[in-house]
Amino acid sequence: MKTTEFAMKRLQSACAEKGPLCIGLDTDPAYIPEQVLGGYKSPAEAVLAYNRALIEATAPYASCYKVQIAYYEAMGIEGLKSYSETLKVVRATGIPVIADIKRGDIADTAKAYARAHFDGDFEADIITINPYMGFDTLEPFLEYVESAGKGAFVLLRTSNPGMKDIEWLQVSDSEDRVLHSVGNALSQISKRYGNYSSCGPFGAVVGCTEEQDARTLRDRYPDLFFLIPGYGAQGGAARIAATLLDHAGGTVNSSRGILLAWKKDPECIEAAGNKALSLEMMVRAARDGAKSARDELMTAKKELDKSSVPQTGIENV
């Protein structure tokens, strides 16, 4: 190993210190009203300005930021410049940044993806990977664990209803599902790295929209750190997220609930109606939304921990 500062362990420590909130910068220009967009040369410039201000305002409540590349790709070259700058802004704060790219390919193509997103203009601390072409898709990214302390979240049980089409298929002659093959492989990868005391360099994406299997997955993979989407706008409850935060823990993503917090803020609603909404007002609402989400998640986790403590009776003397 050339480094001892592992991204996944650093993220785990940040969650323990600041709470489990991951703020998703899935910043669609459509989330910014025209009266604000009009003050910038392009939608990509407006998105970057919103991201910069939001990162500064919400940093006290965020364990990490997750940047979904698709929204930036959709804006073309200018959007990718905004994406690159957003990654740099987060990394300059020292807060871990996750590039939500969901890459999955083999051989030299996978190596190129690893170079693109663990180095250069698009460098991130952690990325997301789709493993369903096979586990050889993971190997090129593991090279950057060893050389640069990078990490990855691998799709395990996602938050969309269509996950049942593949992830939930039953393996023949077994009670296991396809997703369990992924989880088992990730557990084996963790065992290859002795420098991780409580979680491996590769974590798992586990959505919090289904309560019935949250406990089962959390207990089956106690040493995997989870990236937990689905909270808030996608319908996932804080209590489900809290279950997934047991053992090695995890980080819970909220994107629209924070980016669009201004739409539920009375002052912002009134200002928008009067064509007087400003970026500063949107950021203030996002900051309040981030604090509220962080507090809700921490409260849910405390309540779960409290309910899990065995109650002992007091004997009469």
CATH topology: TIM Barrel
Specify the CATH class. Alpha Beta
Largest sheet: 8 strands, parallel, barrel
Strand content: 5-15%
How would you state the average pLDDT, rounded?
Answer: 91
CA distance, first residue to last residue: 59 Å
- The largest beta-sheet arranges its strands as 1-2-3-4-5-6-7-8
Q: How many domain regions?
A: 1
Please state the structural category. alpha/beta
Residue ranges: pLDDT <50 for 5 or more in a row?
A: 311-317
For this entry, give a set of tags:
alpha/beta; 317 residues; TIM Barrel; eight-stranded parallel β-barrel
Précis, in short:
The protein has helices spanning 7-18, 34-37, 43-58, 69-73, 76-93, 107-118, 139-148, 178-191, 214-220, 238-244, 256-259, 266-273, 279-308, and strands spanning 21-24, 64-68, 97-103, 126-129, 151-157, 202-206, 226-228, 250-254.
Any chance you could write out the topology, listing elements then pairs?
Layout: H1 7-18, E1 21-24, H2 34-37, H3 43-58, E2 64-68, H4 69-73, H5 76-93, E3 97-103, H6 107-118, E4 126-129, H7 139-148, E5 151-157, H8 178-191, E6 202-206, H9 214-220, E7 226-228, H10 238-244, E8 250-254, H11 256-259, H12 266-273, H13 279-308
Parallel strand pairs: 1-2, 1-8, 2-3, 3-4, 4-5, 5-6, 6-7, 7-8
Helix pairs in contact: 3-5, 3-13, 6-7, 9-10, 10-13
